[in-house]
Amino acid sequence: xxxxxxxxxxxxxxxxxxxxxxxxxxxxxxxxxxxxxxxxxxxxxxxxxxxxxxxxxxxxxxxxxxxxxxxxxxxxxxxxxxxxxxxxxxxxxxxxxxxxxxxxxxxxxxxxxxxxxxxxxxxxxxxxxxxxxxxxxxxxxxxxxxxxxxxxxxxxxxxxxxxxxxxxxxxxxxxxxxxxxxxxxxxxxxxxxxxxxxxxxxxxxxxxxxxxxxxxxxxxxxxxxxxxxxxxxxxxxxxxxx
Length: 242
Ligand SMILES: [Zn+2]
Prior knowledge:
The structure is a single chain. The protein is an alpha+beta fold. The chain has two domains: about 20-175, Helix Hairpins, CATH 1.10.287; about 180-240, no CATH class. Helices cover about 75% and strands about 5% of the residues. The chain contains four helices and five strands. Strands 1-4-5-2-3 form a five-stranded mixed beta sheet. It is rod-shaped and about 130 Å long.
């Protein structure tokens, strides 16, 4: 059993407090980073869907214009045929032109029906785009506010993390290097929890009973005692009396 001073035990306890906070804050910041990523991705996904709708709207507008142009062309042809019709000399020519006019009128009907359909589609998409735009702007605003809140909180957490890292460094400088190495080793094996209290003969790291004789030694607090089950460094502070 290594004899160590009470100051060393106290330093180890402080080191553990810092370590626990560091582990906690790192986890919080990691979670925050993930959350921020998720929010950005959500907005991007919505933005992409909106862009797609806008592209569909462009296509719909183009289809309408194409149809209108076709109608115009057919109209022009009908007018031209009608003008020619007045100047024809033979019955045969007359018949041909008449059929031409008739055919063009039928084509015009088809285009007009088509235009109506395109127009309906365009209106529908236009409405959907307007709705999505509103939703997108709302979502954007909401996400930006949320990101700002997160950022503000993260700044606090990052500052706190820096403080604990400095504290950890300071304690490390004053602590015996072999104790520091031991702490680091135990900490690594136990997800950052290396120094634990013993309460009513129970190790607060693994929640197993420790032998009464060992408990007495832990209570004395002048030697380095490890939990027989989980190998964590043990100390004793009566929580109620603190
Ligand atoms: Zn234990």
